[in-house]
Design goal:
The mean pLDDT is 90. The chain has two domains: 65 residues, no CATH class; 52 residues. The protein has five helices and two strands, in the order ααααβαβ. Strand 1, helix 5 and strand 2 form a beta-alpha-beta unit. The protein is 48% helix and 8% strand. By secondary structure, the chain is mainly alpha-helical. A two-stranded parallel ribbon has the order 1-2.
Amino acid sequence: MQVYLDNNATTMVDPLVVEEMLPFFSEIYGNPNSLHDFGTAPHPALAKAIDQVYTALNASDDDDIVFTSCATESNNWVLQSTFTDQIVNGDKNHIITTEVEHPSILSTCRFLEDQGVKVTYLPVNE
């Protein structure tokens, strides 16, 4: 019997989710932001899903929720926007992280170091 121990990276999709998503892989597969019929068909489902996220988070229309395609994009977006907001436009110039962060965090921190940001990498020994 195999045991899968990498759910931190990728987790099997719940069968109920697969069932709900199947039409969007084979029938209603257009870009929901397109103006043509293939795009307008899935748009209501996308709008409903976004509303469900706002409801689950108890967010209002005034709240900004950013949807990204993956953890790498999210990590880059957060660090880059923090760089712009707090470092370029503010008075903060120091990031503290660990040596064992996701590669997207470490590579973005190295990029920010090249931009003059001070980055401290904390060692992890336990």
